[in-house]
């Protein structure tokens, strides 16, 4: 299978590429928009550059021989619109896997299933919800298969820029972390290696419907204060933190991964504390 990863040089894309390489029958192509050094390239992955000034032509060229296109990028509706237009004009239908977020769901302490109504709040959430709609419309119009993967908060590497990254960098660099609000804000977290395995499965899975949506998450909520406690246990160090004024955000968002676990051949996940220990040591190696 020929797989094109848009965002294949980013945090999740890089781990997904490595996981896909375990399938000997797959050929992995990572699209990138800037120059890359040899040390950044993964052995066994082909790299094709996208020229942002000539998106349509360069994307069309990158699509040659491709069976599946994975969108693992930050929200960019203008790019998605152009990419879908190119895909719609391509003679061979290609499966699309779009990486979204469980944050499109409303607040709630229970795990949201995939059929729950969406309620985006931040610009990031709104961008992901809009691009989901664009992909679903494309599937219905073109007959192409579209799989939407709504990810929990992914962590596990220094390339990440989420809350776990901010906490670990503050700890390793001996800085004071500012907790916005009371620290009880709760999210659903998943290690990047677990997310990559799940996405690998979804890329290869047969689809009965034009659009399928899966939550790729743990289904377990942890607050910021929970994270601080577990990181301190993992590192055996105290993290200095102070409370700061709250920001506008949802308090609690958790996904229900039951649908994925019913279909995936392997859905083992590491426990949060063990995964944080591994992540902490990766940060130590990088920053010290």
TrEMBL record:
SUPFAM superfamilies: NAD(P)-binding Rossmann-fold domains (SSF51735). Residues 3-217 form the NAD-dependent epimerase/dehydratase domain. PANTHER family: DTDP-D-GLUCOSE 4,6-DEHYDRATASE-RELATED. Belongs to the NAD(P)-dependent epimerase/dehydratase family. This is NAD-dependent epimerase/dehydratase domain-containing protein. It comes from Candidatus Magasanikbacteria bacterium RIFCSPHIGHO2_02_FULL_51_14. The lineage of its organism: Bacteria, Candidatus Magasanikiibacteriota.
